[in-house]
Amino acid sequence: MEKTVSLLQELITLRTDGDGERQIADFIEGLFAGTAATTRRFVHSDTRHSLQVCIPGRDHSRSVALVGHIDTVPVSDGPLWQHPPFSGHYDGEFVWGRGSADMKGGDTAMILVGQHLLAASEPPALDVELLFTCDEETSGMGVVAMQQAGVFDRAVAAFICEPTSCRPGVCEKGALWLQVTAQGVSSHGSRPDLGVSAIDGINAFAQRLAGALLAGAAHPLLGRTTMAMTTFSGGVKTNVIPDSATATFDIRAVPGLQNRQIIEMSGQIARSLCLERPGLHLSAAVQNDRPAIELPADSSFGSIVDDACRRCGVDPVHRGLYFYSDGSQFVPQTGVPFVILGPGDDAICHCRDEKIDPREIETAKNIYLAAISQL
């Protein structure tokens, strides 16, 4: 346990809240220097690196990937934390700090897997790829670069080591971020009949799209597709009917609903509103497009992971993830069977006083190793 805690503490103290992943890539690469492992850097900028660590197996034609991002979200309320957010404070039960759960705990488990395999009496049956990615919290440039470079071409399975309290995540919602702009006609606030309110136009758009999305089928693990208006600007003065407004929408689609269908739906709604309200013009721009992903129910990898969980004392109750992961950037392109499983509670991700029980990191490591032994 002491090794697990100290390794996690080192990762937390290396700040990667926004950029700086190079320093963690340096640190992890150093841990595998002089071993049978091979490494490869993906250099995105001077400060932003991703790292591939390959633990060689007996069969080089196949691989299993363990994927973990090394960036974190920023901290805006550091003085309010119980312990400094980049201290990695350990109180004997939890390790505290930004990224402890999301997801440097998972990164720690990945490192421990690699070190365990290298110390074993014989190599694993297949190559084990430890993929430490940058920029997952924004555009996913790390995993995109790896996917485009063919890193997943030999993969027969992948663990996405995000926090799930070590229970198998077999699906995740997609994300579609739309920026909707409305142009209307201004008029005096006392004569709204002479103008066309851009704000009213966006509100009508939001209501119709939300209604259409809620009418869709519910997913057994993830419920229904959701939509939230998350930013808004419009109007110049209280007594002027606004002729311009802009809003952004965060839409989280369940598996079975494709983002392109939502984009088409949005366009149809916008066109209908413009016809109904002469003088109104609506346009939508896509800011983020991450598809929903789901492991097929009959996947043999899913059964292997369920069995590995049981062997490690974890009840493999399947769950769905409401957030997107790096998986959205390589699973649709490659079709690699995946399970999202890692240490930590996703409910405290991005929150003040983020923390993790290091015993979960040990459990995750053991589940990964048990599953790898069956591939």
Give an overview in words.
The protein is an alpha/beta fold. The chain has 2 domains: 2-172 and 292-372, Zn peptidases (Aminopeptidase, 3-Layer(aba) Sandwich), CATH 3.40.630.10; 175-290, 2-Layer Sandwich (Alpha-Beta Plaits), CATH 3.30.70. 31% of the residues lie in helices and 25% in strands. It is built from 9 helices and 17 strands. The protein has helices at 2-13, 21-31, 100-119, 141-148, 198-214, 259-276, 300-311, 331-334, 358-372; strands at residues 38-43, 49-55, 59-69, 95-96, 126-133, 155-160, 169-172, 175-183, 187-188, 226-234, 240-241, 244-252, 281-290, 293-294, 319-321, 338-340, 355-356. The strands form 5 sheets. It has a 6-stranded mixed β-sheet with strand order 1-2-5-3-6-16, with helices on both faces. A hairpin with a 5-residue loop joins strand 1 and strand 2 (49-55). The radius of gyration is 23 Å and the shape is elongated. The mean pLDDT is 97.
Features:
six-stranded mixed beta sheet, 9 helices, 2 domains, four-stranded antiparallel beta sheet, 25% strand, alpha/beta, Alpha-Beta Plaits, Aminopeptidase
Topology (SSEs and partners):
Blueprint: H1 2-13, H2 21-31, E1 38-43, E2 49-55, E3 59-69, E4 95-96, H3 100-119, E5 126-133, H4 141-148, E6 155-160, E7 169-172, E8 175-183, E9 187-188, H5 198-214, E10 226-234, E11 240-241, E12 244-252, H6 259-276, E13 281-290, E14 293-294, H7 300-311, E15 319-321, H8 331-334, E16 338-340, E17 355-356, H9 358-372
Parallel strand pairs: 3-5, 3-6, 6-16, 7-15
Antiparallel strand pairs: 1-2, 2-5, 4-17, 7-14, 8-12, 8-13, 9-11, 10-12
